[in-house]
Amino acid sequence: MLTVEGLSVRAEDLELVREVSFGIGPGERVGLIGESGSGKSLTALALMGLLPDGVTASGTARLGDRDLVGVPERRLKDLRGRTVSMVFQEPMTALNPLMRVGAQVAEVMTLHGVAKGRARERAAELLGRVRLPDPERIARSYPHQLSGGQRQRVMLAIALANEPDLLICDEPTTALDVTVQKQMLELIAEVAPALLFITHDLAVVASLCERVLVMYGGRVVESGPLREVFKHPRHRYTEGLLAASRLPPRGTRLATIPGAVPAAGRFPGGCVFRDRCAHATETCETAPDLTGPEEPTGPEEPTGPAELTGPEPRGDGHAFACWHPRG
Amino acid sequence: MIVYLLKRLAVLLASVAAAGVAVFAFMAVLPGDPAEIALGVNATPEAVAELRARFGTDRPPAAQFLDWFGGLAHGDFGTSYVTSSPIGPQIAERLGVTTVLVLGGMVVALIVAVPAGTFAAVHHRDPLGAAISAVSQVGIAIPAFLAGILLVFVFAVKAQALPSGGYVPIADDPAEWLRSLLLPWLSLGLVQGAVLTRYVRSAVLDVMREDYLRTARAKGRGRMGALWRHGLRNASIPVVTVLGLQLATLLIGAVVVERVFVIPGLGDLLLNGVAGRDLLLVQGVVMVLVAAVLLINFVVDVCYAVLDPRLRGAR
Lengths: 327, 315
Fold this sequence. Notes:
heterodimer; A: alpha/beta; Rossmann fold; 10 helices; globular; B: mainly alpha; MetI-like fold; 13 helices; 0% strand
């Protein structure tokens, strides 16, 4: 349903996201994980056509038969909020403080051709559907009268209003309390159509998604079914990420990935992770391809020596871009 | 909302009272006895004492104050020591002229600043947006009276299209009234408009960076549609603050502009009063100006409550 091929995002001469390719089937829930600064949010914003001024996307992204990248704003407007919706990270600032909540929910429907009265009725229904208590009252409230969790539910109601084919969530629970976070995730799991869920919280992905994409340095370094990637990570970055998220036995040190994510444009050439990787060798100065069925099928062979491209993909969609994979 | 308004109203009344005390006290400590001024240097002490008794200036200050301030409540500003005519009607007539002058200037400023500032914000990366900022910067540096003189030179002296000064009451001839006010409005409004343009620009720029504008675009609004529907009202809150301050500035600026264009407004009356040592007249005009500024602040507070629901519930 969603097919992304060779998506790159640039700001002037900096390449912030490079050649990202993936697909999401109807009803499929895909997690996009990685540390801050790995290009997750930019990837999502590029799909929505909401990149900040001066940042541009190239490549192709198709949702059904509609192009999402390189299309004039005029044509994208029609898709946003109707075919593809997005819930943002910060619920406290995402709603207009001067407008009643119900009107903000109804707006997304009237923008896409629903009559005013009908949209107002539906708004209250939707607020009930995202389990807000007393939806009629919430609809008449202003955002400052609601809690962060309630506001994020309102955002979800807005996103779901026109029954989109794809929902993109960019760390929607990061700013919420843990208990509220859990309810929110359950709700998303229940109501989401196809889902692209961005987070750095691996536990969240594990509870919600069927497939994961691991991003680092603006590239997808590993992708595959959730269980496969989490049980048998192949890329050394994924391995480090998983190790860091596990609680170690009492008395031992927390596992970390050495170093820090470099600033945009400061990633090393070749494998972007090689300056933080304990397994890096000279080979890693050449960029490894993402091998596996997810790779856009082309005639070119992997560039490295055959024994370094790892074993043949298993046919389950597990792909990785590493010269020295684990296992 | 009601509680908020009542509280603001109480603050307004209290500050007007405090201002009354301050204005009266300042005038009282100024040297110069009205009776001595009226009678000149050769007056006998008896004549001065008699006149003092007639003016009521021989009474204790507190009694004089209560008499004066109590009179204000029903529009009685007292009787001039110099001209022996009641002050209230004079002030009322002049206040009307000044109000029209100041509000007209503000309208000109808004007509200039809102489109120019919004355009400069939306196009802040383009040369044209930067050019608007630069022009408004120049405008800030020009005082209103200089703008007035320049406008007179261009439109009255060179083009002979508009009168260079004077004022025609609207009741006499509406068309001439408009023509006589056009240049004063422009000289007040263009300068304030330049200042306001910068505030509008920065308010719109701030709003453009807000998350809710991105939300609006994610709903399917275009850039301009999102700004129009969700941005302008939010941006108007800081602009209203500046507008209130500017109205106060305009009121004071009107004193000068009335001089340049020979308009019989409050400023003109104030200057006449000072020149004629008409203490009670000066006291009355200053009180009216101070009260007007306080009233503007009250109106600004009311505007906040109308614009921003967050202010309505609390405080």
